Amino acid sequence: MALKKRGKTWHTHFFVDGQRYRQSLNTTDWREAQAREKQLIVQASQGKLEASRQTFGKLAFEQAAAIYFVSRRVELSESSQKKERQLLVKPCEFFWTTRLTKIVADDIFKFREWRRSAGLGPAAINMEIGVIRRILKRAKRWHLLSADIHPLKEPRSVGRALTYEEKVKLLHVAGQNEEWQRAEAAMSIALNTTMRGCEIKRLRWRDIDFLRQSVVIQTSKTEAGERLIPMNEGIELIFVRLRERAKKFSGVEPHHYVFPACEHGNVDPSRGQKSFRTAWRNLTRAVQCPNCRRFQKPGRLCSDKACGADIHSLKSPLAGLRFHDLRHHAITELAESQVSDQTIMAIAGHVSQRMLARYSHVRSEARKKAVAALSAKPTGRWFQGDLDTCYDTTSDTTGVKRNGQQPEVIEINGRLVGTRTPDLHRVKVAL
């Protein structure tokens, strides 16, 4: 263990278990340098300050993020890699050339405020802070900041279930435009099977069993998501029509995707469609012109030049509806159909009662019916319609007189010990 002064700054040089550690203490005060050196020795003895990690910690954040992402590619699926790459964009933009050893808690707070001012929600900010945390953990720096940084409180809203009118309107609007056909088919599948969007996009024809009328989910978000879902008549008809359309571009082989990729009009059934986002947003945001009754994107004037009506104030009641909300709605309908929780979890792929409660939005109509089934009608005289509800001295306070002699209460020193009725044995009271 040794302290050396280089210029005006103190540096430490020590060994722990045969491993050498050399590091700047970033101070010009000798006493403070001694205290920091002791802290580093404790961290090194606890395995929190490995010499092999010091090179990573000295890197600029952008360089460290690139190395981190390469190491994570083996651990993550393709979709998770894409998400991790997106989460790294803004942290790299904010910290950029800042070394990991120079990042302190105040820098994390400033980054959080910066993202908040851009309109980002708490959940997304927490995910970006999470990727920063994982990088700093690799550099053995997070333990110095973790006591000061806590995750933001996220809203409890988990989605919504559609009303009957909203569901009818959604199905009606989806059939008004040929460009929304894929989103319409995916929407119907979600409403009839409780499937997630990622599960629908990964469907292959080998997963559709028309003979047994079932859909097999091979890969999902969780292991519980791998399940078998029976097909009803509506969903079977949808898959039949999708298969007939796939025959036109020879995309009905078992390994081909039900929703193939399509770029610039070229269909590739060997690759799955990446997203329904564009079609889904256009579908849910579409407004209907009050004059010509034409469905179209929101704008200032109607897209029909012959009409030209002012539609700038129109807004779709379905705007903001997420594709994942269709899964919430399907599970809600199952919950309202008096199906057992085990059956719902088997179809939806949940593993706990807590997750079932999270996704089930039992609507007010179902709650009213449930409450109407309860019965506890009062029988007291005050409940009768022809009697006054106020008290009267004769009946309500003294009570109705009983035939026969009243029992005599027996007390000893002011304490009830029993009753005695003429010609009857004494009745004891348990003390």
Features:
single chain; 431 residues; alpha+beta; DNA polymerase, domain 1; three-stranded antiparallel β-sheet; 16 helices; 41% helix; 13% strand; elongated; disordered C terminus
Overall description:
The chain is an alpha+beta fold and 431 residues long. Among the domains are: 2-49, no CATH class; 61-144, Orthogonal Bundle (DNA polymerase, domain 1), CATH 1.10.150.130. The protein has helices at residues 30-45, 51-57, 61-72, 78-95, 105-117, 122-138, 164-174, 181-193, 197-201, 233-246, 277-285, 325-336, 341-348, 353-359, 364-372, 393-397; strands at residues 2-6, 9-16, 19-24, 208-209, 214-216, 228-230, 260-263, 266-272, 287-288, 295-296, 408-412, 415-420, 427-428. A 3-stranded antiparallel β-sheet has the order 1-2-3, covered by helices on one side. α8 packs antiparallel against α10 (233-246). It is elongated, with a radius of gyration of 35 Å. The chain starts with a strand and ends with a strand. Residues 413-417 and 424-431 have low confidence and may be disordered.
Write the layout of secondary structure elements.
Elements: E1 2-6, E2 9-16, E3 19-24, H1 30-45, H2 51-57, H3 61-72, H4 78-95, H5 105-117, H6 122-138, H7 164-174, H8 181-193, H9 197-201, E4 208-209, E5 214-216, E6 228-230, H10 233-246, E7 260-263, E8 266-272, H11 277-285, E9 287-288, E10 295-296, H12 325-336, H13 341-348, H14 353-359, H15 364-372, H16 393-397, E11 408-412, E12 415-420, E13 427-428
Helix pairs in contact: 3-4, 4-6, 8-10, 8-12
